[in-house]
Design goal:
alpha/beta; 7-stranded mixed sheet; 6 helices; 38% helix
């Protein structure tokens, strides 16, 4: 019986846990400007400027070059043309330094979209702090051009982030076509 209890406890620890996103649908997304990189080239990314072009898919990930974050970056890179067709800007955010993200933007994002440095203020504002670390959890948002959250998904497993955000962007695009 004791072995069963130990195995049950170990199994629970191994299960992926979805972290609830603090910003619910309809909330106003905090605006920010941060250092980002696209195709290895650094630039200043402004959420406010990006929203002038259409919706923004803002996805937070814990750390560049880790297995789950690499899987997620590849999946977003593969879907980047679909996001673009729907008028969305795609940007990943991590607490990593810009130098690391410059390399990640080329090697894992395939130079298809930007990745930026999530500052402590951004991590707090979007409530994406990974417990007991300075890193972010894995949370994806879709933000309308009006600055409102229209989709949110939080789960440490990278599966589901691309599918959910792409569906939300495509639904938004269909509803806003003349």
């Amino acid at each position: 019986m004791k072995l069963f209890a130990t195995l049950s406890a170990a199994a629970l620890v191994a299960l992926p846990v979805a972290a609830p996103a603090a910003l619910p649908i309809g909330a106003t997304a905090p605006t920010f400007t941060t250092q980002a990189a696209h195709a290895g080239k650094p630039f200043a990314f402004s959420l406010k400027d990006a929203l002038r072009k259409g919706p923004v898919v803002l996805y937070f990930f814990p750390a560049a070059f880790t297995p789950g974050c690499t899987i997620e970056a590849h999946a977003f890179a593969e879907a980047s043309d679909e996001f673009r067709k729907a008028g969305a800007t795609l940007v990943g955010m991590s607490a990593d330094p810009i130098e690391k993200l410059q390399d990640f933007s080329v090697k894992e994002c395939s130079s298809k979209f930007a990745v930026g440095t999530a500052t402590p203020a951004m991590i707090s504002g979007y409530d994406v702090k990974l417990a007991d670390t300075a890193k972010t959890n894995r949370t994806s948002y879709v933000i309308s051009p009006e600055g409102k959250i229209i989709f949110t998904y939080s789960a440490m497993n990278p599966a589901g982030h691309v599918k959910g955000t792409l569906a939300a962007v495509q639904q938004w695009d269909a509803a806003h076509k003349p």
